[in-house]
Amino acid sequence: MEKVLDLARANSIWPMTFGLACCAIEMMSSAMSRFDLDRFGAGVFRASPRQADLMIVTGTVTKKMAPVLTTLYEQMPSPKWVIAMGNCAISGGPFVFEGQYNVIEGVELLVPVDVYVPGCPPRPEALLEGFLKLEEKITGTRRFPGPENRW
Amino acid sequence: MEQIGNMIGWETVKMVVGLVGVLAFVVLNALILTWAERKVAGHMQRRIGPKEVGPYGLIQPIADAIKLLGKEILTPRDVDKPLYYLAPMIIFVPVLVSFIVIPFSASLQVMDINVGILVILAFSSLSVFSILMAGWGSNNKYALIGAIRSIAQNIAYEIPLLLALLPVIMMTNSFSMRTIAEAQSGLGWFVFYQPVAFLIYFIASVAETNRTPFDLPEAESELVAGYHTEYSGMRFALFFLAEYTNIFIISAIAVTFFLGGYQGPFLPGIVWFLLKSYLLVFVIMWLRWTYPRVRFDQLLNISWKALIPLAFINLLVTGGLLKL
Amino acid sequence: MNNLQEFAPVVLFSVVALLFTLAPIVIAYILAPRTKGARTLNTYECGIEPYGSAWVRYGMHYYIYALIFIAFDVDVLYLFPVALNYAKGEKPDEFYALLCFVLILALAIFYAWGKGVFTWKRKFSQ
Amino acid sequence: MVERIKTELGAALEGIAIADASYRERGYHLSLEVAPGELLNAARFFDERGFYLSAIICVDYREYLELVYIFSNHASLCKVKVSLKIDPAKPVAPTISTIFDCAYWHEREIREFYGVLFDGHPNMTYLFLHDGIDSYPLRRENIPVSDEDKRALGSFKPGEGEDTFFVNLGPQHPSTHGVLRVVLKMDGEYIEEAEPVLGYLHRMHEKMAENRSYQQFLPNTGRMDYLGAMSFNLGYVTAVERLCGIAVPDRANYVRVILTELNRLSSHLLWLGAYLADLGALTPFLFVFDDREQINDILEPVTGSRLTYCYFRFGGLYNDVDDAFVTGTKAFIERMRSRFSLYDKLVSGNVIFTNRTRGIGVITKERARKQAVSGPVLRGAGIPMDIRKSEPCAAYGEMNFEIPVGTRGDALDMYHVRIREMENAVNIIEQALARLPEGPIMTEKVPKKLKPPKGDLYHTVETPRGELGIYIVSDESDKPYRMKWRVPSFSNLMIFPELAKGNMLADAVAILGSLDLVIPEIDR
User: Is the ipTM of this complex over 0.95?
Assistant: First the structure.
């Protein structure tokens, strides 16, 4: 039963419409004509966290944004996942320097992160790979086995 | 005595079979339509849409459904619990009841109630009620605005909807869906006699189902998700299910009233009926992916300034032509 | 008797509809995992704590529409029995009756129109 | 013009020395220093002569704080720097928000970053920073925020009232395009008041500038306005070149124009799609992304990135364009021309669209000046002002294009202005391609460590959203002493509250869209 559920979950990941910064544009790109997230059933962007499965943290999280982000995460119904997209979400990226006063150095300090997608900003292909990794994490099997498994 | 008992028995069997059939159809229809909507949207937007989950992405809606089944249902703290719980249940009643009188073919109908269309119209008001309950019960501001918009919208479009159906009733002298369908044998479809009424009905019914360009109650760019903002998991899915079934129902009514119902050459009645209905459903999807949303005052005024006067004129012309 | 029997499916379908909606919710309660955060059950408002409840006086600028609607809806319902028996009479009397009725109804719209009910003024305070 | 202003100014403000400045090196024509008591007189003087307040900049020189007011003119090129010295121990200055409305926002910003109290300012609450901040971030010394200030500043709180209906639009909201938050006070569908709350993406660019060398700051420019990265890149590079007196070879200048215009095109395209998505039509969004991908296909091999370009270097370019770029761009121009007619059919003629936007969010010329809006919003309001024409950098001076203006100043006009600008961009690219000279792309003598001569510079360029002003103070070290970014979206947003007032919620979304905001740029 759990297996069937997981399979369904992996094939129907609805992300939340939640753009923070530059990476949000690439997130949109990946849902658009050329990359088309909807192929994997993940193209249903829901604006309300109540109906979303996945939060893609697309950009720098500031200290002012942090409580908002955790609230949104908590308001999502479980099971829920988080993708940290871009260097800013992973570690604060280029905005970490001595004397910085406004950036959270990595979103994992706020919410549990399932998949990290590095890049500044990551290409849409990278985000797609992130989705496949998330599916692999949920079901235990990879959708398109990589070249190393194919040969 | 025995005869009556037999009759009730037979009727009951028919009813139960119909019920099971309708339930199966409702679920199947919603699955097909969600898949179709994503596919249609995809192809209109130069992409493919669901593809990887099953052949042509056909298993996609099933995956979505199972996922929603396994999703936590949250009840926010500040909601009005009775209203909040009841809303997604009540929205389902008109959906199911409407199917009783829809004639899928000459013989395939749960029961031909002689006031068939009135049953549908009467029950369809319940869905407004449910949306108001959802919006008010959620204690969420977006939901409230969405719900109130929805009421004003339904109010505005119910009258042209009724007025557009009246000429057909005048021509057939019947409320029975099957009689109306039968009256259009050959190519005597009412759409040829009543093109204006058909257009008014179609516009009004698109508005009644809250579809673009009249999707103000759930306008994403203004109200996040409108009246179902606070609903999660299966409760949200019920709203979704009702919405897609409603699209089919209004198309079915349009087919029965204006497009000759199940009548057509060569193919069996049910095939014609579904073919015509889904064609209309496709047109509604097409509208959604093409047009921007109207503003609230424009929405109300389209109805009050254009559709209602037009419907009145159409009614009078029909009345005059029938009598004079 | 027979008339009421006709509506048995309506009652049955209504009850089944209510029960049918219960089933998936119950299944979901059994299947779904549960989590609770401090703010999970707070009202959603773009991630911000909402200012006050949504249950306050809400300025509905379209209550006039509602008033017209009530008048209209009832009147349009009168037309349904008329329509049902319309073609049965031989004489054109019905048409004249209909004409009068509809014209009076239409008058209400034009009156409201003239009164400016259908124009939405922007409210500029400057 | 400059001479006339100088004599009139001398007559109006007696006893104040007005210095001529070299426009080529400083970016302004006149500079004068006033005492706090005379600031209002000076501001009134510029207001009467139709100037607008381009920016207010605060610089901390340790011994004193200097407030710099840049006044500029839409009609003819004349920029005046007015400076005011205040005591860092007790920083108080008079507000000029009573004369120039846009000063209201600039002064709030300075208050929270420098702690300068503006006398007579109606609202001095935090705009950008979070409540937990305990010092003034841009001060050179660590000045703790006093408890009194903390209470006074605190973040936005709406007024009390039982029956008021407040709605948060954002920070997570589909139509605010990012993390902008607007608190709306509603009366049914109508908006009574709108209050933007910023800073959800404040990434300390100005603070970083003080910690990094000129070269190290280059990548930041692309991350400020991620849609018009090339323009910001161009602005910064040309500003530093102007400060150091570096000449750029011709070919580099032409390539700069081509790439900036391609980027402008893609930025406007995204605006078009997002705007229509705001209005409820989702499909055009995907159509414009299709075009954007074509642009990315051209830019990616040359610049190496898809979004946050960092391609221009001090003295030239990162690498040269090749033949594939030229043919690709030519093919793209052909394709784009056919797309315009498609958008025209799909959008411009759509009844619902025109009815949603006509007469909505009308900006008059006077309000546009007072609020210092710029770019397409300003041109939509009917003022033909384009910095590419008035202060051309790179090879813009040799390009031939007209400036589209609106007649009504509403959202529909801004749509038409942007569409015309896209067509202009295509024309400019074509002209630049036709004249693209051969030659080097980089000047020979650019030192590894740039150390510009002492002085300041206010440099402006036209980005897709409007006037970008970069104010750099150099102290002869390899790091800028102070770098202030006057960003277009910040000024354009500030007209939103007055536009939204009295309109419906759906109109507010249409107005917000017509301003074309990019949030990281506002918050910096």
Answer: no
